[in-house]
Amino acid sequence: MSFQQGLSGLNASSKNLDVIGNNVANAGTFGAKSARAEFADMYAASINGSGASNIGIGVQLAAVAQQFTQGNITTTENPLDLAINGAGFFQVAKVLSDPGAGPNATPQLDGANLYTRNGQFKINRQGYVENNQQQVLLGHSIDANGLPSASLEPIQLPTTGIKPRMTSGVDLEFNVDARAAATGPAGATNSIDFNDPSSYNNATSVTVFNEQGDDMAVTYYFQKTGDNTWKVFGTVDGSTLQGSAAAPEPIATINFPTSGGNPTAAGGGSVLLADGSTVTNGQIPITVPGSSGPQAITVDLSRATQYGTNFGVTNLSQDGYTAGQLVGTSIDASGVVMARFSNGQSASVAQLELATFRNPQGLQALGGNAWTATYASGDPTRSAPGSGNMGVLQSGALEESNVDLTAELVNMITAQRSYQANAQTIKTQDQVMQTLVNMR
Fold first, then answer.
1. What's the pLDDT at 233?
2. Is there a contact between 270 and 276 (Cβ–Cβ < 8 Å)?
3. Measuring CA to CA, which residue among 377, 399, 367 is closest to residue 35?
4. Domain locations in the chain?
């Protein structure tokens, strides 16, 4: 008997306790994965090389295998906290100490992608999404046409806001009361006083925007001049759209069919411009002042109706908006990053992508909740969350450590007893050696 077996057992038990202690220490670390010490026995080869001795010479640490089981998901109040429910890793990258020229420069990455399950992300001063280790989250940016970029790149939120969009079209869906009395003259004569409600039947208003995002109030006045004929006048910020202030002209004349339905449908209705020409699609052009000159807007009157019920506007929308600042973000289960702006607009700005590995236990742990790919893990397979075998994302949530404290405490007791037993074998071997030394 030698001291080798007991000494190797002490080393193995000590390393097992180290692994257990590390698991317990990271029980509260989001995205951390527990590890397991795996051991193998050792045998010495015989002198003539014909085989190994039947008596082992101890134990050795074969591997420390991490267990990539799913951790519990807990909700938070931060929309940038992300949890993966299922397989996959976030892809992040280290930023070099020299980020480039100025605070708004694109960060320079060290070229090696890292992988993590910890979804504690924040926005840095440049608008990039990063974690506590200053590693930026990677994904595909989405351009103004809704197309994602071809390569992985740091995700940056539009902290500068969104540019204004000039109004180009207005959809006006309404019903005028067929029972209403005529308030305007028939024929080509135009007579309306915008300050006198008795000179028109109804009015409604919509806000439009010029190329600089300045808002203008366009008001539409509806004046019945015959059984099925209505004239539509307009003002922008109080100024007449067609004609002069002293003699306003209609921007359109609507001749409803006798059925009262849409003027562009079959049945004899029509929409006429100020010059008397017919518009087959019901879309009339108007001109409003712009910051750099007159601004053309198309007003769609094709869904107007004249039925025997009260006047009502069922849809009044336009496609422009003023400038807006970033007020919030959200990330859906498929990894699409949405930005919300103060002008009520929202836009898709990025698409997250997860990575999986054929052998995740082959990943090399780097600390800071990050792993790197190795030959043993294989190359990553990338896809959007929720596609294939990828897990889905949950925004405003984090994945807790998968460490089972109860099991770890039991393992700790077992490892402690194993350490004591191996120490006892060394003590016994020492006593045997002492007996031999004392023999006479």
1. 95
2. no
3. 367
4. 4-68+403-437, 73-156+353-399, 169-318
In which residue are the tokens 């180290």 written?
18
Distances in Å between the Cα of 206 and the Cα atoms of 111, 150, 216, 414 are 52, 41, 8, 76
Residue 354 token pair? 């997860």
The predicted pLDDT at position 255 comes to: 92
Scored b (16 or more CB within 10 A) or e, 205-227 reads ebebbbbebeebebbbbbbbbee
Alpha carbon distances (Å) from 274 to 107, 232, 250, 271, 293 = 57, 10, 6, 10, 22
Residue type present at position 403? V
* pLDDT-flagged residues of the chain (< 50): none
- φ/ψ region of 18 (left if φ > 0, alpha if ψ in -120 to 50, else beta) reads alpha
pLDDT value of position 338: 92
Task: Give the residue carrying structure tokens 């007791």.
Answer: 413
CATH fold label, 169-318: Tick-borne Encephalitis virus Glycoprotein; domain 1 (2.60.98)
- What digits encode the pLDDT tens for the residues 109-148? 877 899 999 999 999 888 899 999 989 999 998 887 778 8
Q: For the whole model, what pTM was predicted?
A: 0.76
pLDDT digits (tens, 9 = 90+) for 57-89: 888 888 888 999 999 999 998 999 999 999 999
pLDDT of 266? 66
Question: Within 10 Å of residue 147's Cβ, how many Cβ atoms?
Answer: 10
Instruction: Please give the C-alpha separations between residue 133 and each of 106, 120, 367, in angstroms, as whole numbers.
Output: 18, 10, 10
